[in-house]
Amino acid sequence: MNKSTYKDTRIESLRGLALILMVAGHVIGSSAYSGMRVPDDSLLRYLYDSFVYIRMPLFTAISGYVYALRPVTTYGSVQRFLKGKTYRIAIPMIVVSSLFFLAQSLIPGTNEKPDHENFFGIFFYGYAHFWFLQAILLIFLGVIVLEKARITKGFAGALLALFASLLIPEIFEQPIKLFSFYRALDLLPFFLLGLIASRFPEKLAGIIPRLISTFALALITLHQAYLFGLHNLPNHWIDPLGLALGLCAIHTLIHYRFNCIPLIFLGKYSFEVYLFHVFGTAGARILLNRLEIYSTVTVFTVSLAAGLLMPIALKLLAQQHALSDLLLFGNKHAVTVPLKKAVSSS
């Protein structure tokens, strides 16, 4: 079987899991002033904080894992690889972030109104959740350099690159926000972790996964004790703890990955859901509040469902026309697919 075209359904299950965690996180909101505006002492806030070191790092690690199955060398040239990523990531980033900017500006009930004078700035600095697309583009550029230098071709070099990536953010006294550079640095170790797990599985076999999973469990227990206020951690310990927790927990998830049909289905539409989930989550919350429905369980459940399913429905509609599929989802070679056939094949 051709490794470059093989799709591991267990990785798709993990992608679906990451998708649910990400959308749920945006439904809840990162603070009491965003999303559902839940208080800091609520159950939903506890759940948000419990997965904060796993959500986007897991997405990034999966990207690294999948990249290793079809690295830049399989495209024939760096130029061809970058051109493909430009179509797939950059075009939807520009189009969809513009649509979201307009929606935030015009629709009543949104949590934040953007500054109209800063419209063009959203393409150069992190805006809403689109910062991840900027960061992942920078990560791909960095990985191309590592690949061309053959650093990541061997296990020792790839592992050295991962350890080096943990130290690079310490070089900068102030975070570089242009094109979400500082976030790319934060996520690069997880991309390399996914690449290593995919490219060198035999090097991480035997007792190593059990040791890593044991360490992950210990770190999760420490983090949970911190969330429950059972102990206080010095501020300078929190970020290293979260980084170690994320790396160990995500490697454990990748190593012991599983098949789950609903998650596999969601995983197929991960990019589409990532792009458009906020339209569904915010739209559902605003509509429910207009109907004077404020039940936490109802708002969370309906918003989560809308955030996951609305983008899939939009994708099925957009793929009927090549131009809409290109602009909204970056599919350059889109073909017209009958809607009934598309639904049945999903």
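Above is the first protein from milestone M3; the second protein from the same milestone is given next.
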Amino acid sequence: MAYITLDTQKLKKNYDYLEKLLSKNGITWAVVSKLLCGNKTYLEEVIKLGIKQLCDSRVSNLKVIKSISDQVETVYIKPPPKHSIDEIVKYADISFNTERHTIELLSKEAKKQGKTHKIIIMIETGELREGVLQEEFLDFYDAVFKLPNIEVVGIGTNLTCMYGILPSHDKLVQLCLYEQLIEAKFNKEIEYVSGGASVTVPLIFQGLLPKGINHFRIGETFFLGTDVYNNVTFDQMENNAFQLHAEIIELTEKRMRPIGELGKNLLGETIIFEDSDLSETSNRALIDLGLLDIDEKHIKLKNKNLKIVGASSDMLVVDLGENKENYQVGSLLEFEMDYMGVLRIMNSKYIEKRIKSN
């Protein structure tokens, strides 16, 4: 069997640290919960911490959040697809938008449901993912302000997620200037200047975050304590709130090199082995975990003396060397994961999700 655990004490430590840091700097923030893939048990633990706003990119996950607490404000954080407009208005209090026609559909659906739907308009600042072009944003806001049942509550931008474009003081100042221009031209108050994400947190310490940035959306730093900008862990935070455990289902001393003509494996790769004595052996363990659940590049064994030497759809192969720790069939191996590792595991229905509280 294989299972993942969430250490609620470590997660609380991360939450308390971020809450203190951001509130001290006049910043409201939302947890980006898409890492949890809508798992109700884990979402309940997050909501218990006192989170007031949760962001997700799947409307089904927002539905789960609303089933836990209708007091939590939900945010749909990608441009809404047309076929999901009715559910987005129903389960998302706020949505991120970049297409005028989509907002028109949201307006019609919000009127139908007797609601006012809030939106944050995303501006393109260099990442070339979602965002209204800078030369078009004034006309865009002008048209959207006229729509019924729509309340524009923010302006935002996305950086780093696709091409790795890092946030900078100049880019974020530019976003603040756009907000000021909109308020002056249309005599409207914009509540959120949402320019902050996990990668933006270090700019607070560097004194490079413009005062106008007042809203952050944080996922990886909250869950994994990661300083995304510098690819390290914040000293004051926990990076292993999630732990993966997988069972040894076979343990045998075998040759270290396969025998026979080498073709392509299931990934279409031809593995090249270094020259060595074909009689050389080691203790090899098969693990009840495979590529269907995880990409081996995104996990590492907690025991540094062990090494992953192969993978198939449903099993990993681990070299135990001389097996000095005396692992047996049925023993559990522990793994640490990065963000994408946790995301893949959480998305696997075959991996049990457990809570660790101590």
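Note on the second protein: The mean pLDDT is 91.
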